[in-house]
Write a structure and sequence with these properties.
Strands 1-5-4-6 form a four-stranded mixed β-sheet. It has a two-stranded antiparallel ribbon with strand order 2-3. The two termini are 42 Å apart. The protein contains 14 helices and six strands. The relative contact order is 0.12. The chain is 51% helix and 7% strand. Helix 5 runs antiparallel to helix 8 and helix 6 runs antiparallel to helix 10. By secondary structure, it is an alpha+beta fold.
């Protein structure tokens, strides 16, 4: 039996984890609570980038100040003589208050990314401490910690760039290294404080998070059933088809009309005709069709899954009686220009 080449091997841990994770039901919570947890029952309105800059300034200030205030005022924390705030949380503040729509800024990544990286950094440093030549090998401990944390975050779908600095600081910064295992709860506390601040500030005029665990649909046992039927999440939902097939699917879908309670509205494509010769991506609640030859990076794939999940959310809300009687879902057709 011939083994596949290394470049052809793919592993998705969510394929095994998501089937056991229930879909969050934030809509069951009181509206003020669900609002600040990122739930919206209708599409949110976009705000201008000037306001985004203002909110990112306020968020970064409040998030970092909150961590510093708690660390400085806690006698328990001060007994370990920790730094006022880890430098990696300055970088995390940019992600969690500025680029809040990035998959790398969502709670799973920000919490678990920092936590796993701290664990890797401390463990690696402890191992190197067994050598009497630790100081001369500190540089190596830092490099291994950063590289290993990157690989583990990739494996667990918890990639959070600032967390790489957390692992690095655990090895190369003497002020952080002396904390030992105490660094792990300190990092967890700092991550939770920054997330709590982000939930408040980012939801005043924007929406955060876009998802808590994954952009893919979560249904627990239903997820396993879909996978057995060949309709699971992840790569199974995003298909690459020849351009002719995508064009044919698009032509049939763009002739659809959406009916409201008293009127019939034409789709966006009929209002603004699209050149049928252009390549396109088709997103529906069931599948995302991508022309053959279009490469999708991990973050781009996550964005498509977010859009697909929003369409699924419309159907789910309708099934559970959350939408008004005249609501309807619209299939969007996006065009790509070279």
């Amino acid at each position: 039996m011939q083994l596949p080449a290394a470049k052809e091997v793919n592993f998705d841990i969510d394929k095994y984890l998501n089937r056991f994770i229930p879909r969050p039901r934030l809509y069951l919570l009181p509206r003020p609570v669900s609002w600040f947890l990122g739930y919206r029952d209708k599409p949110r309105k976009e705000i201008g980038n000037v306001l985004v800059w203002g909110w990112s300034f306020l968020g970064a200030f409040c998030g970092v100040a909150l961590i510093e205030g708690v660390v400085k005022s806690s006698s328990l924390l001060q007994s370990y003589h920790p730094p006022l705030v880890l430098g990696s949380f300055g970088a995390a503040a940019i992600l969690e208050y500025n680029t809040i729509e990035s998959p790398l800024a969502q709670p799973r990544n920000s919490i678990l990314g920092h936590l796993l990286s701290a664990l890797v950094g401390v463990s690696t440093t402890k191992l190197f401490h067994l050598s009497p030549h630790f100081e001369s090998l500190r540089w190596l401990a830092g490099a291994i910690s950063c590289g290993l944390s990157s690989a583990i975050m990739g494996l667990t779908h918890t990639t959070h760039p600032p967390a790489g600095a957390t692992a690095l600081l655990a090895a190369i910064d003497p002020n952080v290294e002396v904390l030992g295992w105490f660094l792990i709860p300190l990092v967890l506390l700092s991550s939770l404080l920054m997330l709590g601040s982000a939930l408040v500030i980012n939801n005043l005029q924007r929406q955060f998070p876009l998802f808590w665990w994954t952009a893919a649909r979560l249904d627990g046992f239903k997820q396993r059933e879909r996978e057995e039927n060949g309709d699971g999440n992840g790569n199974a939902d995003i298909e690459k088809l020849p351009k002719s097939v995508v064009d044919q699917s698009s032509s049939s879908s763009t002739r659809m009309t959406t009916t409201t309670a008293a009127t019939t509205t034409k789709t966006t494509n009929e209002k603004h005709p699209i050149d049928e010769s252009l390549p396109r991506i088709i997103i529906t609640s069931q599948k995302t069709l991508v022309p053959e030859g279009v490469y999708l990076a991990g973050e781009e794939r996550a964005i498509l899954e977010i859009l697909q999940d929003r369409l699924r959310g419309i159907l789910d809300a309708d099934e559970e009686g959350r939408l008004a009687s005249g609501s309807s879902s619209v299939t969007r057709v996006c065009t790509l220009r070279d």
